[in-house]
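Researcher: We're teaching a course module on how sequence relates to structure. For the next exercise, students receive a sequence and then see the predicted structure as tokens, so they can try to spot secondary structure elements on their own. Here is the exercise chain.
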Amino acid sequence: MARKEAREFAMQTLFQIDVHKDFENPDIEKYMGGKKLGNQKEYVTSLLTQICANIEAVDEKINECSENWPVARMAKTDLAITRIAVGEILFREDVPKAVAINEAVNLAKDYGTDTSAGF
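Model: And here is the predicted structure for the students to work with:
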């Protein structure tokens, strides 16, 4: 599995965790549903674990940087994409910041609304 597909899967999984309000000690393996991640399993599980364990700090960072769009107002898909990007920036030294942002824009183009990528 390529990193792009792993990001998509991480975003979808984080969306499900958010829907279930299960950030405190979520069973990441359960949410992954047996998906074969190959060499990207460590990336996905580590990223999701870090985001969930630090969800308040991640959301606070998003709120600091988004004008007039606090986390509470964001569409769940856009929020999951943004959390993945912020998680990569904060917790993944192997992902350059510019790559995290660029990939978030690409995810927003694929999964968000017409205005998501610009956001």
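Model: If you want an answer key for the exercise: The radius of gyration is 13 Å. DSSP finds six helices and no strands in the chain.
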